[in-house]
Queue: 2 jobs
Job 1
Amino acid sequence: MKRGSVFKIAAISCYVLFLLASWTFGFTTGKEIGYNFASFSLYMLKILPCAFILIGLFEVWVKKETVEKHLGEESGIRGYLWSVLLAGATVGGLYVAFPVAYYLYGKGAKLSVIFTYIGASAICRVPMTIFEASFMGIKFSTIRLLLSVPLVIVTSMLLARYFTRRKYQIMPGK
Amino acid sequence: MHYLYIVTALALVISVIASREKTLKALKISGKRFFSILPDFLVMLILISIVLFLVPDKVVSTYLGTDNKFNGVLIASLIGSITLMPGFIAFPLCGILLKKGVLYMVLSAFTTTLMMVGVLTYPVESAYFGRKVTIMRNTISFFIALVVAVMTGILFGEIF
């Protein structure tokens, strides 16, 4: 077993013990933390299973060549366009974008495109942006989108170039 | 969120019609991948539950309303980086703060870092992409958020 996973198991067990103890002895801090944990877990459980089902279906049905053609090295500017559109349709947040991006990379998407996808799914998910605009005004959301999306694309290209030059390997097969 | 369920259900139905075996294989892959990342998700949820206890909404409201603009932006972006909130909580909160007179640029720094910079999602991000990618992506995102915030300030006439 790796050191990392021993640490994870230890941390998770300590935490569970702490919650149990707080519950038994009526320790309010622990109860509040437990409540936070439960509400966030429920929130993510509403999204993650669907996301992973779609990831599985995608793995089985979509050919590697298709991903390579539209999001891979030959895709050019269209690759970025696709990744921003896909990000717009993403639900949840970064924690959904990471696995999706990771498996897209495994299927042949290029590094700069998946970095763009991660960044864009943080900032331009369509339902979220509509919600944002209704509270902050359209001007606010427009400024934010028009500035941040190009910045995300340019920095993703630079980041990808940096890691490609250093032959950085993202481990496949998680 | 409902459209996620609709899309997933439709995709499953079409997949079953097209090939039962392939669908089964897909679901096995889904399960395997989900459970292999689950410990990292648990660590992330633990971090979230503790940090949200230490930095509740009230604290966020207090700190974002500081008098000095640039301190405000800096503090907002730090709080946005270390916390995690779903949009349906964050934006109504920002709407209230806006009415209270908190500047657009401060709220922009807060929401953009909230969305793009994930200190709490570090366990999941680094499990997939490694430490180096995670740190660099988050650092860059932090600076993107600052640029966006300053530009928002300029365009809303809050700086000059």
Job 2
Amino acid sequence: MPKKIRVLIAKPGLDGHDRGAKVVARALRDAGMEVIYTGLRQTPEDIVEAAIQEDVDAIGLSCLSGAHMALFPGVVKLLKKRGAGDIVVAGGGIIPDEDIPKLKKAGIQAVFGPGTPLTEIVQFFRNAAK
Amino acid sequence: MKLVEQVLKGDKRAVAKLISMVEDDDPGATEALASVYPKTGKAHVVGFTGPPGVGKSSLINRLVREFRSRGKKVGVVAVDPTSPFTGGAVLGDRIRMADTGTDPGVFIRSMATRGHAGGLALATFDAVKVLDAFGMDIVFVETVGAGQSEVEVASRAHTTVVVQMPQSGDAVQVLKAGILEIGDVYVVNKTDLGGADVMATNLQFMMDEKEGWRAPVAKTSALEGKGIPELADAIERHHKHLRSGPLWERRESDRARKELLESMRRLLAETFSEKGAGEAFESNVKSIVARRIDPRTAAANLLHDLPRSG
Amino acid sequence: MFHPEELKAVEERLRAWEGTTLRDSLKKQPEWRGDFVTTSSGPIRRLYTPLDVGTKSYNERLGMPGEYPYTRGIHPTMYRGRLWTMRMFAGYGDAADTNRRFKYLIEHGETGLSVAFDMPTLYGYDTDAPEAKGEFGTCGVAVSSLRDMEILFDGIDVANVSTSMTINSPASILWAKYLAMAEEHGIPWTKLRGTIQNDILKEYQAQKEWIFPPEPSMRLVVDTFEFGSKHVPQWNTISISGYHIREAGATAGQELAFTLANGFEYVRWGLERGLKIDEFAPRLSFFFNAHNDLFEEIAKYRAARRIWAREMKETFGSRNPRSWLLRFHSQTAGVSLTAQQPEVNIVRTAIQALAAVLGGTQSLHTNSYDEAYQVPAEKAVRIALRTQQILAHESGVANTVDPLGGSYFVEALTDHMEEEAYQYFDRIEALGGVIPAIRKGFFQQEIANSAYRYQKEIEDKERTIVGVNEFVVDEPAAVEPLRVTTEAYQRQLGRLRRIRKDRDPKKHARAIEALRKACEGDENTMPRILDAVRAHATLGEICDAMRVVFGVWEEPLLY
């Protein structure tokens, strides 16, 4: 049986708009993956600890309140510090174009803005597991 | 084995990786479990069963905090169903345990049933072994709650906690068959909704003494954090009860028996399968369709002809 | 509305048409899709005729505007008497940043103010709280103190402009700050006009900006009803919202039903407190989404008015016609804005705004084209405001009341939405009511299911989103960035430090203690909140005191 891909979907910070995160979680499930959805109001510590204990292949972060620059890179940094730098991190939400290169430089491998097809997101996580 | 060494040294990432290895049945999983096994036997394994929506996850969250405050290291294995159509799963029990996730004395692992019928995953109790070896004093196992979860968990855990919530209507609704026999501790959760007293009293009334233990009925509100210390006490009392006499040995013996049987069946199923039977399988199928042979005889023949492993 | 003889003739004609003209046309040119559906995936037929309206009574079902059941509008003259309020939701950075934006909007013709708060404020945290890290001012203005409120409205005549504040869990506190600010300026509370959103039920269902569990939160809401009816009579102490429910993924029918169900729940809680219905109901207001499907939205608003009027009169027995009026604010659908080819959002917003106006909204916010990227830049927000002004002054749609009244299509759709709403009311009741249904995750699950279905329709190309899954260009978007500055952040932190240092510590401690006691008991919390605000307690300090007494809510998981 092909190995199951495990993904953590997390909402860091205070933003409670979870429509996108939930739709993505469901899409990944429908694509045969095991999705751990952390729920709202997660700190980078919460997220990284969960990712390690759940031995996920990748993390998807969602933020619509404009606080992504403050929240996303912190997750990558902490993963590296905990020896889990091999876990792939992607982000999504309301993110100005100019911030995308900055996020990528900070280690966020992909940024999925509004209108990204789910198939693209699913494919990304499939590849991330390899 | 390096991974096992790291686990025994207390490396959480290694624990997680070992659990994955066992879950995925990777090569080396059997060997790893073999190295880990001698270090198990200390943890108190507590299974939680009860219908979906009754509050198992929230209750476990509260209990994790309670047992931590009692100086215990706590592990949790939370199982959710895999979709039979897509093979995927959303594992959401961890949400309810968010505030305990970063405590170094806590380890929470979410697991999908991956097609296994019943309320658990095949690897659930192997994951429990890893957590046991890792040093957890108590390991909670949360079942899916549907189907025959109760039976499965009761046969593998030391203490089975059956969680219910107040039913609408005044009489105790007909509880699932067997549920009154299976629990070591009963909980009526969601007392904040009202009606809990009646239900608890009725349940208590129905409890018989079994092996010197009359299952207590605890009333809790996981939402409000009420009744938790009393529930923790009941769980610890049962542990003591098991440990005090011959019961612990007997339970361990039962568990070992069931696990051996299951491992045998598994091994057998892997070898004695469509793949294992090779070409003979297909030719038997044709014969069955042609009414030259019946399925039972065909199976017996295949078993007889199965090559012995060295 | 039609005589049976006439209807019979129409039916004959319709059947004939179907058998001849239509059939021939379909043979030559079949319809280009098998099903035509609304944005909510509801089926739309090819043609609507008098048969869809039937013999229903005009007087009963529609009546006159400004009279029960208000289907056609809550005022006899609607926009001929007064245009809807052009009320642009605004806020970012610190109070000074937002004060400038308010003045810009007023200068360009907005007629009412609307405050957007940042995440920490929405959740009852001061800017310097650990939970607020990285979240200052990014999606709204930070208001931690009374001083912030003063700066926010500096130079604005709050006695003569109405202010809406989009705040929920800590609504009573922000309202108290506004009231205290007005008090400092010598403005009597009886003159103040405005709204606090204060709709906690939809937070559990959709927006998720909760702090406390449902019961203490509802108590706080009813405290504001009570206080408002006595002391701030022109203030709408709640804006019962469907906007967020819709944005989270609900269909128009769900938006309508869940919003009204929440409304009825607030009425029940007010009555339970012992308030007389006609004392507080006139100040209940509503807030709906203005989404893509033009006619579905118009039907939704009309159905809303009719249902609310009927229930308030017949079920709740209110006698004051002002209790029967459903007054609402609308906002064009944020979730429909695309990051791709953002200028095209101007068109979306215009059509959505049209729906709200044709539907009889009392107040309207139009989104800016850059909002799939950020809080709006000046030029973008100006275009959004101009959109309303075009509708009001150039399009002609405001020249008559309920222009689509009598349209066979719109009336049929209105009736259908009304029926659908009642089906939902029954389901919610079967679950034990709104709050038990929230605990069971009913609304959350319905919303998540609709959201997923909508997304699948887009993925499968059953639903076209221009620029996203069709008519795509590979062009970077030209969006002028708007950033929160570090200077603003430092100003905010400095202010908080100074306030905590300069205030009378004894007065502060006494006020917090009195507030805590009030929360534990059952006196109205508003006077104690006001005292705490006057003693310069910050938002976070007040909420922390409340958190200790009320606890914190944990949501049931569903996806």
